[in-house]
Design goal:
globular
Length: 205
């Protein structure tokens, strides 16, 4: 019996070590993200369409400020603004602007929450919505999130977050859809905890 226990312990040791390692990585990343009061960066978004075997590339600027304020502004090849300020969302292009109360629209609420939390890395705290695994990779860490909730499964098969080894911030997000399409967002020129004009988050534009 003692020998059997020793063998089982030896077999389980790598699994226990891996679980502890994942927990430690997630704890480090969560600690780093909790210190972020504001964030500004450039982004490149690549939309890969399976049916067309083609990629659509767009660029823009992103601004974030606690609590729950996000500005996602496309500047190329078109101009489009998405602003989330607490429970309100502004969608604006060159011809019209629409304000949506996310508390009255569950789809927008889920999408906006996932969008913000993925960029900030806060999805690693959402064990109720995702099965989460994370591992060290070259230059950082890669987290794979498999949806658990039905409403998220209807949109995505998995999300993949890439974290920088030094800053522990998100540098790339991959969103894989049920259709086979995917969206890859790469963040560059990241500035953390710099002053951001509050007017950038106004939904009354």
């Amino acid at each position: 019996m003692k020998r059997l226990f020793t063998i089982l312990l030896a077999l389980l040791a790598p699994v226990m070590s891996l679980a502890q390692s994942e927990a430690q990585i997630i704890e480090k990343i969560n600690a780093a993200s909790s210190k972020i009061e504001s964030l500004e960066c450039d982004f490149v978004q690549t939309k890969q369409l399976k049916i067309l075997n083609n990629s659509l590339i767009s660029k823009g600027k992103m601004y974030y400020s606690k609590p729950n304020m996000l500005r996602w502004e496309y500047t190329s090849p078109y101009n489009y603004i998405f602003i989330m300020n607490q429970h309100q969302i502004l969608l604006k292009n060159s011809s019209r602007a629409d304000v949506i109360d996310v508390n009255q629209n569950k789809i927008f609420k889920d999408i906006s929450r996932l969008m913000m939390n993925s960029i900030m890395g806060d999805l690693l705290k959402d064990n109720a919505s995702f099965e989460i695994s994370i591992a060290p990779t070259k230059g950082g860490y890669t987290a794979t999130l498999l949806p658990i909730k039905r409403e998220i499964k209807q949109m995505w098969t998995k999300l993949v977050l890439f974290f920088d080894e030094v800053s522990l911030g998100v540098e790339r997000v991959e969103m894989h859809e049920k259709t086979g399409d995917s969206t890859i967002i790469t963040l560059t020129n990241v500035k953390i905890n710099k002053a951001i004009e509050h007017s950038l988050f106004s939904v009354g534009e």
